Amino acid sequence: MNGLQLIRRHAAAFGRFAGLGSVVSLAASAALILLSRWIPWMAANALTTIVSTMVATELHARVSFGHGRPGLPGHLKSAATTALGWLVTSAAAGALATLRPGAGLVLQQTVYLSATALVGIGRYLVLRLGVFAQRTPRPRPDGVRLRAAYGPMV
Questions:
Q1: Cα separations (Å) of 22 from 64, 95, 135, 144?
Q2: What's the CA gap between 18 and 34, in Å, rounded?
Q3: How far is CA 25 from CA 20, 29, 31, 55, 113, in A?
Q4: Gap between the Cα atoms of 122 and 137, Å rounded
């Protein structure tokens, strides 16, 4: 596979990752608004975060990376990246509040969305290269390679 094909494949996977993540986030936001009418906001937030992380992990594993079902280890690793992302965005918002206590809404959103974008790129890299990495085919002892190991990655 040449460099251009590799770039296209990763760009397509990143596009699917970003698109699916955005759709899941918007759906979680709507669910949070609805649930918070019946249960306390903190509980609704926790519930939607857990469910949306599980849904996003399934979608990313299957659609973004063509990996198949993620299983419990995949879900736990993905949840860890989500928790780390939450810490990073919270730290960015906290740093802004400390450094610029009277920051306006535009600056607050700029910092938050910038941190979120960086977290998204980092999350993509960790999931793509670590959690749902394409397994490299190993030749069998008799030198025969398994055809299925070279299937296209969607």
A1: 13, 26, 27, 42
A2: 24
A3: 8, 6, 10, 10, 13
A4: 26
